[in-house]
C-alpha cells in the first residue's frame, strides 16, 4: 500500500467552492475510478487556505492507471470547466508519496483511528 498526500494551495476566498466541488461531485468520480481517500483536512489557521487529503493506492501502477482515468473522464472535464469559469480554485497542488514506516509492532492510536 502506498499513500499520496495532496496539498492544495487554495485561491483566497475559494475554499468553500473547492470543498463543495469535492463533496458534491469529485468524491463520486474518485469512487468511480477506484481512488480511495483516507480523509480530508484543512489548516487550523484558515488564513493559510490549504486543503489536505490522502489517497490510499495499492501501488504506483494502480495510482497512475486510476488517476489518469479520472483526469480523462468526460464528467470530470465538464465539472472542471464549469467550476473554474472564473479561474482555478487552487494555485498549485503538491503531491507527496509515502509508504508505511517499518515500525514493527506499532498500532495506530485508537483515538486517531476513531478520528478518521
Automatic annotation (TrEMBL):
Gene3D superfamilies: 3.30.70.100
Domain NIPSNAP: 3-89
Domain of life: Bacteria
Record-given protein name: NIPSNAP family protein
